[in-house]
Amino acid sequence: MYVCIIKIIEVRLDLEWLRTFKAIYETGTLSAAAQELFISQPGLSLHLNSLEVFTGYKLDRSARKMVPTEIWI
């Protein structure tokens, strides 16, 4: 039973990461994505950092708008 709960939690976190990525991709900025998802900007940054660590790839944060690197597309 505990294994099932852990798997559900892992899936939920992965879905949150994907929702975060989608919002950032569509809006182009962390603050706009956070507003769209009704979460704080620091919370959104944590989701993004977790996703980047999990995948091993980072978004290009050098421009005014966040742009996915080639690997994300």
UniProtKB/TrEMBL annotation:
The keyword Secreted does not apply. Keywords: DNA-binding, Transcription, Transcription regulation. PROSITE patterns: HTH_LYSR (PS50931). Coiled coil: none annotated. GO terms for molecular function: DNA-binding transcription factor activity; transcription cis-regulatory region binding. Residues 13-69 form the HTH lysR-type domain. Belongs to the LysR transcriptional regulatory family. This is Regulatory helix-turn-helix protein, lysR family. It comes from Olivibacter domesticus (Pseudosphingobacterium domesticum).
